[in-house]
Amino acid sequence: RGAIPVATLDEYFLDDYTVEEFQGVARTFRRPTKHASNPLVGNTGWTWDRDINFISAQKVGSAVTLCYMGVSAAAELYACRATSTDGISFTKPNLGLISYGGNTNNNIMLAARTTLIGFLYDATETPTYLGVGETVSGGGDDGVYLYSSSDGIAWTLIKTLYSGPLDGNYREGRAITRLADGRY
Fold it and tell me: What is the pTM of this model?
């Protein structure tokens, strides 16, 4: 079987899905530890992202940019943004775009029930950012969508990838990649 390139960074939660074969390989488990400053999660005052899922990270210039799914205490989904210069301490910028509880002082990029679950930054392309996301409302707008952005903050819907109930009988878009032939 052909070799699959693997990142040179440690894979802390490596599973059987990532590696095709384990011949001559010993799997070593390390006990994960929470960073002392809890850089991204933990402040229950951030009620729009009390729970954080589907974190997608890209290095943009000298910073690490995260798009992630924030889940509120009321189980609403939000596309949120955080940035870091060292990959440990993250800042949740006040974007002022979407109102939550009557206040736009938050890091929410897309309206309730809509989230980005993967994004790609490519400085050589226009638009500079592409993202794949979901809308989950139990209504007619449920589906998986392709978004674009010139700044990674304000996103525009460009294509419906799947329309219908998000009940597990569909292929979720978890990431977006540019192929050698230029397709995504």
Answer: 0.72
